[in-house]
Specification:
The chain is an all-alpha fold. Helices cover 85% and strands 0% of the residues. It is flat, with a radius of gyration of 27 Å.
Length: 312
């Protein structure tokens, strides 16, 4: 029993430490943007608070530099590096050193948690075999935690983008039908959709910035689809590229795409509702039915036991 409690406590501690370190060490924003936002928020604060924030930024950058050096030694081959970069980019980590920092974290966390467990577990008086098993377990949790957190952030970001896409399309239709070009419409929609989805607003602004910097529109739109990894957004990009290439009406195509997207969202809701009955089977069988059997059949079973014991 004590060993079970100790392993559960170790699991909670290692997962918590992994999440805290990952969120602190892998910021989704670039350092310059974060420093600028911190400086803006610090307006009106005293010099001590500003100096403290700058020290934290410097310390965080030093940690990132160390993790980047470690990760460069551990990064996989070209195919694996490209896959990791794509996963991090879709999760919101855009800096060029993000894959190296990610792998540095996957090296530093197992080492830190493993050696920490080896150092602290003997104080509990357990055997060396248990200490070794706990250290291996902590190292494994430290190695897998960054991957799980990044995948979770990617799923949350995909959900956010899918939720905001129908409203984005409606706003694009309104802007284009009002006479704005596609580039100006993207900027206007990015400003309006900011209150609904910050991720969608940033993606549209980045796409417009790439177009203004000289990138061809179809290339910039394709990069938008690659950065997000959302199927509905990829189909929208494909439609916009074909519309721009063949010279058809953008407003009409956007309206058709918006209707199609809302129909798909309604179908997803119906599918989720249909799956509810199947998902409820396991809680019913495991949790509710046994309690009902105890309440309904319990008194009858007790009476039968008493009756047979009286006969004996």
């Amino acid at each position: 029993m004590a060993m079970t409690i100790l392993l559960l406590a170790s699991l909670a501690l290692t997962i918590g430490l992994g999440l805290i370190v990952l969120l602190e060490v892998l910021p989704a924003r670039q350092r310059s943007v974060r420093q600028r936002l911190d400086d803006i928020q610090a307006i009106g604060s005293d010099a001590h608070d500003i100096a403290h924030q700058r020290r934290r930024l410097v310390q965080g950058q030093r940690v990132l530099d160390v993790l980047e050096v470690l990760g460069q030694k551990l990064q996989p081959g070209r195919d694996g590096a490209a896959s990791d970069a794509e996963m991090l980019r879709q999760a919101g980590y855009r800096r060029a050193s993000a894959p190296a920092i990610y792998w540095g974290l996957r090296l530093a966390l197992p080492l830190g948690l493993g050696f920490g467990t080896l150092s602290l577990m003997p104080l509990t008086g357990t055997t060396s075999r248990v200490v070794l098993a706990a250290a291996i377990y902590a190292a494994g949790v430290g190695y897998i935690t960054p991957l799980l957190v990044v995948r979770s952030k990617r799923r949350a970001r995909h959900k956010d983008l899918r939720h905001a896409l129908p409203d984005t399309l409606d706003l694009l239709v309104v802007c284009v039908e009002a006479g704005l070009g596609l580039n100006q419409a993207l900027v206007r929609v990015a400003e309006e959709i900011r209150h609904v989805s910050q991720a969608m607003s940033l993606e549209l602004l980045q796409t417009n910035a790439e177009i203004r910097a000289g990138t061809p529109r179809d290339t910039a739109l394709q990069q938008l689809a690659d950065r997000t990894g959302v199927d509905d957004l990829s189909s929208l990009v494909t439609m916009l590229i074909q519309t721009d290439r063949f010279g058809t009406s953008i407003a009409r195509s956007l309206r058709v795409q918006s209707d199609t997207l809302r129909e798909k969202r309604r179908q997803r809701a119906e599918e989720a509702a249909a799956k509810t009955a199947i998902k409820m089977v396991f809680p019913l069988v495991i949790c509710i039915f046994p309690a009902m059997f105890v309440v309904i059949l319990g008194p009858a079973a007790m009476r039968l036991v008493r009756a047979f014991s009286g006969l004996g």
